[in-house]
Amino acid sequence: MGDTLWDELGKLEKPTLSQLFEADAQRLDKLSTRFEVGEDESAGSIVFDWSKTHLDDAHIAAFEQLAAKMDFAGRRAALFGGEIVNPTEGRAAEHTAQRGVGKEESVALAADYHHRMAAIVEAILRGAMGEVKHVIHIGIGGSALGPALAVDALAREGALVDVHVVSNIDGCALEAAFKACDPATTMIAVASKTFTTIETMTNAHSALEWLKENEVEDPYGRVVALTASPEKAIEWGVDETRILPFSESVGGRYSLWSSIGFPVAMALGWPDFAEFLAGAAAMDEHFRDTDGAANLPLRAAFADQYYTRLRGCQTRAVFAYDERLDLLPDYLQQLEMESNGKSVKADGTPVDGPTAPITWGGVGTDAQHAVFQLLHQGTNLVPVDFIASIAPGHDLDDEHHRILLSNCFAQGAALMAGKASEDPARAYPGDRPSATILLDEISPATFGALIAFHEHRTFANAVLMGINPFDQFGVELGKQIANQIAQGGVRFDPSTEALLATCGII
Ligand code: F6P
Q: Which alpha helices (DSSP H) does 293-341 contain, by range?
């Protein structure tokens, strides 16, 4: 990356947030932007307010130079052009093509796959494959977190079918789904890009056994496979007509838009799923076509780099002030940590600074009564994102939502302003950063744009750090050792052997 630019960035003055607002009357206009999700106003909008971060004109100019030096425009063109942007696995990363933005052939192929998916979803919903009231979606990691979040965010009330997402190999998870479903009206969706993941395949086998034990006629007929490895699904016993494929170039944690989104389409119906894709496409086009800090994901990445690299922040926190988004911190944790938690650059050389911070968070206002103490008075500086919706997700008295949003905005204000006190225990240092993302409402389109924003922010961070965000070799070693344990005959360290022996595993 070359140290000079980072040295220069490090030497820039670091005014406090209050000083930044005092010095620049245009600050809010410059750093708080309303993003229209579609040309038609009814698609809704999202405000991205980065004014309570320490970004100023000087830092932005320097980060724009860094982006130029790291060939941000070239890397972005390679992403949208379907080029190999994941060199360690020799793959493109074509999640945007799922939304209709990308290389022509890939967009056409994704549209074909979606066409097939829409036909199957609509057939199931109109009862052409027998009565279906429940879907048990079995997958893990990228094959589960996205669907679980999207179903929760968009279909908490009024889902067309009752969806249960099961990921953990711990049988408690699957058993809970069984208890909530009637086997005679349940469809099992096996979601696995590779169709080899041990947790998913074990859970899928048990789900099939459950259908058999409950004398469901043609149990295999109640299974759909969502996969980039259709041949493996066929080998496992799924009929070709119930396989919903997607491309190898769609990464696991970026796969919500592909057939992995099947339970979302089942819960919402196809037209809303199409809206969800369109909302993401609007963010894709913005990210593809906008230069410099006006580019919202890139602006957010500038702030991320500022805090991680220049202020030594080891974590970043996300608080959704909306119960419907309570899985968002988990989802972003995988997206950001599995993508950018690396120690080498794309060319294999060691990185010269910290990479992804630890993403954590929760839901407001609950988190205020649990962890906000540290945010306000702890010794760690934690940049915070607040995410909220102007429209509530419930029909109760307006008072609920007024108090919820007031608390959300009060936290950002308090973190920034702080409060002096002669009693040190009661003093708040202030100057603590936050960004706010405010949706008009949580609709399929705004939610799609919100998720795509975070995907592009993650990619922009990777480009600024020179790393490949699309592989995840860090998860392999533990899996290999678990396999060795299953095979037996391998010696481990004394602690591991004692633990295994205590549980009767060896
Ligand atoms: O272990 C990590 C991982 O490879 C994720 O990246 C992926 O989303 C998950 O496992 C599940 O993989 P699959 O979809 O192939 O079952």
A: 296-305, 328-333, 339-340
DSSP-derived secondary structure for 43-54: G-EEEEE-TTSS
Confidence of residue 1 (pLDDT cuts 50, 70, 90): very low
The confidence score (pLDDT) of residue 158 equals 86
For ligand 1, is residue 143 a contact (CB within 6 Å)? Answer: yes
Instruction: Locate 213 and state its tokens.
Output: 């034990």
Q: Among 86, 169, 193, which is best to mutate for testing ligand 1, by the most ligand atoms less than 8 A from CB?
A: 193
Alpha carbon distance 44, 491 (integer Å): 59
Q: How many separate domains does the chain show?
A: 3
Q: Is the CB of 432 under 6 A from ligand 1?
A: no
Tokens standing for residue 206 = 């048990």
- Residue 411: inside a domain, yes or no? yes
Ligand 1 centroid to 76 CA: how many Å?
Answer: 24
The tens digit of pLDDT for each residue in 187-238 reads 999 999 999 999 999 999 999 999 999 999 999 999 999 999 999 999 999 9
Has residue 180 been placed in a domain? Answer: yes
Of 88, 91, 140, best ligand 1 pocket probe by most atoms within 8 Å of the beta carbon: 140
- Domain containing 180 equals 96-273
Nearest to 470 by CA among 360, 335, 285, 331: 335
Compute the distance between CA of residue 194 and CA of residue 252 in angstroms, rounded to an integer: 9
Beta bridge partners of 191: 226
Length, in residues, of the chain: 506
Q: Are residues 22 and 60 in the same domain?
A: yes
The answer to whether the complex's ipTM is over 0.90 is yes
Give the whole-angstrom CA distance, residue 129 versus residue 16: 62
Cβ–ligand 1 contact at 252 (below 6 Å): yes
Helical pair 198-213 and 171-180, crossing angle rounded to 10 deg: 40
Asked whether residue 454 falls in the same domain as residue 490, the answer is no
Q: Which of 305, 321, 435, 307 is nearest to 382 (CA)?
A: 307
Residue 22 lies inside a defined structural domain of this protein: yes
Q: Which residues of 237-248 are buried (b: 16+ CB within 10 A; e: fewer)?
A: ebeeebbbbbbe
Q: Are residues 110 and 173 in the same domain?
A: yes
Q: What is the rounded CA–CA span in Å between residue 162 and residue 180?
A: 9
C-alpha 436 to ligand 1 mean position (Å): 31
Tell me which residues are annotated as active site: 338, 369, 479
459 domain residue, yes or no: yes
C-beta 204 within 6 A of ligand 1 = no
